[in-house]
Amino acid sequence: MELATTLKSQTISNHVREVGINPNYWYPVAWVHHLKPGKVMPVVVWQQPIALYRDSNGALHALEDACPHKGVALHRGQVSREGNLLCPYHGWELNGEGKCVNIPYLPKGQKLPCAQARSYPVREKYNIIWIFPGDRALSEIVELPLVPEYEDPNWLMVEIPAHFQAHFSICNENTMDVFHGFLHKNLNGWFDPVLIELKQSDAQVQADYKVSYQGWLSKFIGISSTGSGITTRTVSIQYQYPHYHTSLEGVSSLYLMRLPVGPAETRSFSLMFIKLRLPEWLLKPIKPLVSKLVWRFLFMPFLQQDIQMIESEQRTYLANPGRRYVEINPAIIALQRVIVRQYEQYMQQSSVTGNGTGD
Ligand code: FES
Ligand SMILES: [Fe+2]
């Protein structure tokens, strides 16, 4: 559905700050290299604590982070040579599906109790570990986001982790909101944004903005050839619930994968692709180093400014959840509608099937 792009005052509904997620999507939980074989780590997907572990063969398993014996956090346990997870308290051993397969002090020959921790579908792709917290059957049908640049050596990939003390709707609005270039003016960010196209469907918002750039940063990432004049480009922002893809006319491409952790905590795992004007033979050996430097010196300052704004917004909201806010960007209103709709549709379906895990 095509929407008007006129900026017009609208009172927003605070309800969007309280909604849960639609869990029937893949959510990013960790970078692949942060979990070595034989190790276990705690992750949280929308208030569901999960013990994520990798067995000695490299296979990943994700179990509810609560032992079926007494509820102790399983991420404090150990991974056995057989690829099971041992609870730290009494050593009950759970296999990758969460089923109890051994109790060290149970007399030989005695039947094991029926005890099982919930297990979650887990995958690794694009150097990210993904968990499907919803209906297991749907994990086979629902696709991970597509990142075609990942395999293309012409791009420099920069991994950008982020952590916000804020509800995911506030974080998502920051990404959709190109009008906040004002915040980044001291960093040679963008200016003069104009919303030129806006579309919304059940699970998607597509917004195109015209923006202008000037200065060394635009030259460095190839937006303009001189850096001294003003260059105007189109930024296309696509929110495909629950993640983002933003592209700048083939000059850069950002995949922002969102992890809602709790009502006031969100993470993101982003992959930024840029093209540097260096020959491949020169760039290839130094790519990891360049990627880290670009992250540290180019993107971190932007992110730190965003985090300050996002967390300030959350604090004010929590101090007075009834406060009235005014928005004039229809792309933000469209985004809020999708976030609320996805949650409500899921809650409706789960109340029909009696299978609710979304709040
Ligand atoms: S609580 Fe886990 S083995 Fe007893
Ligand atoms: Fe920003």
Can you tell me about this structure?
- It is a single chain.
- The chain is α+β, with helices and mostly antiparallel strands and 359 residues long.
- The protein folds into 2 domains: 38-131, Rieske [2Fe-2S] iron-sulphur domain (Rieske Iron-sulfur Protein, 3-layer Sandwich), CATH 2.102.10; 148-345, Alpha-Beta Complex (Naphthalene 1,2-dioxygenase Alpha Subunit, Chain A, domain 1).
- It has helices spanning 168-176, 216-220, 280-319, 330-353, and strands spanning 10-11, 27-31, 40-45, 48-54, 60-64, 78-79, 85-86, 93-94, 100-102, 119-120, 122-125, 128-131, 156-164, 190-200, 204-213, 231-240, 243-248, 252-262, 265-274, 326-327.
- It has a 7-stranded antiparallel β-sheet with strand order 13-19-18-17-16-15-14.
- A hairpin with a 2-residue loop joins strand 18 and strand 19 (265-274).
- Fe (ii) ion is lined by residues 180, 184, 302, 306.
Can you identify the CATH superfamily of the largest domain? Naphthalene 1,2-dioxygenase Alpha Subunit, Chain A, domain 1
Oligomerization status of the protein chains: single chain
Q: Output the strand order for the largest sheet.
A: 13-19-18-17-16-15-14
Main CATH class of the largest domain: Alpha Beta
Can you give me a brief rundown of this structure?
The chain is an alpha+beta fold. It has 4 helices and 20 strands. The chain is 22% helix and 31% strand.
SSE topology:
Layout: E1 10-11, E2 27-31, E3 40-45, E4 48-54, E5 60-64, E6 78-79, E7 85-86, E8 93-94, E9 100-102, E10 119-120, E11 122-125, E12 128-131, E13 156-164, H1 168-176, E14 190-200, E15 204-213, H2 216-220, E16 231-240, E17 243-248, E18 252-262, E19 265-274, H3 280-319, E20 326-327, H4 330-353
Antiparallel strand pairs: 1-20, 2-12, 3-4, 4-5, 5-10, 6-7, 7-8, 8-9, 11-12, 13-19, 14-15, 15-16, 16-17, 17-18, 18-19
The chain binds FE2/S2 (inorganic) cluster and fe (ii) ion.
The site of FE2/S2 (inorganic) cluster has 8 residues, from loops.
